[in-house]
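Researcher: Quick test of sequence recovery. Tokens follow.
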């Protein structure tokens, strides 16, 4: 294979380095001195992973850097899974498509600390904003996917546009629930046109809803396709734009019960801290490392249902990192926790569009 040769160019210096470390320090006594066989094993996994994900690097310097990051991530994933094996949540990490990105790089590329106070003002002062009523009788379990009102998982790619995907997801579903027609909607229109959000640099679903109200609707995905970068606003250029219209949007009161009630009526976009989801593979994420009591959030996903397993209640959430992340693009996150803002603050900033 073509990349095998270029890979071996840097594997040998690496082994050679390890040997030198061993020679200069006597026998390896600590975990930190990597033995050649461990490096070889890791390298084999790296090659398999590269083949599986069709990943190629422009030069051996880049390959070398990526391999080192991969090794650190592999160590973290293995250690974290070992620690969690006794946990009832069954939350597992894996070598997914982000395995060659450092957590810092991942955070910078995919996550945005959403600036809370400044962005909340337009919502509550707008006439489109109405307070959600919270009386309902939610069924014991719910999965909107089974009703055929959720579009396939999308991929935001290298653009901090999670907020636009959360917004279109909510609009697609509420439209399908009320009309029986499932139409994929344009994130790109929101990225280009919503003046209250910042395109690929982050934003809020409720600001996107405000734009859809003001604009009188939102375009179909196929009429305004996703390009993963911000450009000039090209809204309302064709007949049939504004395919889905809404009258306004509501803030969901900050509690598990209110979110449950809202989710039993329609899928709900939530903002939360997703720092720990880089290597998520399966199971119920419990927000193990999220700062307790914080309302700081970095990402948006769409809650499309809820269920329980072995006494642990969880939300079913649709992400926008492609179908080859998590469980076919979805993840489970714990609910009914008594945390003031929910797991990783996901109860704090939930808004729904009203038709
Ligand atoms: C998100 O959680 C991580 C720990 O997983 C923490 O280091 C970070 O500060 C949190 N971010 C925000 C914006 O609260």
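Model:
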């Amino acid at each position: 294979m073509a990349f095998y040769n270029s890979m071996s160019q840097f594997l040998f210096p690496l082994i050679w380095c390890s040997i030198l470390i061993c020679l200069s320090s006597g026998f390896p006594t600590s975990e930190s001195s990597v033995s050649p066989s461990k490096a070889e094993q890791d390298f084999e996994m790296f090659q398999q992973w590269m083949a599986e994900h069709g990943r190629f690097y422009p030069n051996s310097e880049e390959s070398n850097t990526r391999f080192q990051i991969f090794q650190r991530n592999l160590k973290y994933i293995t250690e974290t899974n070992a620690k969690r094996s006794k946990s009832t949540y069954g939350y597992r990490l894996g070598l997914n498509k982000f395995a060659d990105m450092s957590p810092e790089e991942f955070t910078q590329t995919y996550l945005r600390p959403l600036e809370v106070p400044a962005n909340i003002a337009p919502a509550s002062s707008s006439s489109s904003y109405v307070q959600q009523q919270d009386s309902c009788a939610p069924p014991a379990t719910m999965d909107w996917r089974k009703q055929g009102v959720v579009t396939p998982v999308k991929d935001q790619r290298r653009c901090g546009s999670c907020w636009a995907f959360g917004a279109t997801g909510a609009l697609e579903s509420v439209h399908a629930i009320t009309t029986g027609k499932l139409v994929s909607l344009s994130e790109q229109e929101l990225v280009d046109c919503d003046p209250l959000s910042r395109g690929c640099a982050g934003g809020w679903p409720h600001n996107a809803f405000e734009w859809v109200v003001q604009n009188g609707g939102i375009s179909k995905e196929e009429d305004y396709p996703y390009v993963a970068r911000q450009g000039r606003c090209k809204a309302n250029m064709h007949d049939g734009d504004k395919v889905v219209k809404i009258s306004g949007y509501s803030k969901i009161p900050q509690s598990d019960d209110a979110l449950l009630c809202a989710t039993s009526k329609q899928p709900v976009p939530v903002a939360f801290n997703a720092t720990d989801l880089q290597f998520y593979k399966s199971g119920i994420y419990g927000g193990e490392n999220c700062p307790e009591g914080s309302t700081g959030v970095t990402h948006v996903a769409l809650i499309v249902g809820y269920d329980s397993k072995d006494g642990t209640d969880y939300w079913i959430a649709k992400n926008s990192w492609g179908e080859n992340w998590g469980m076919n693009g979805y993840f489970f996150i714990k609910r009914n926790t008594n945390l003031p803002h929910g797991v990783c603050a996901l109860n704090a900033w939930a808004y729904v569009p009203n038709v």
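Residues 1-31, 117-123 have pLDDT under 50 and may be disordered.
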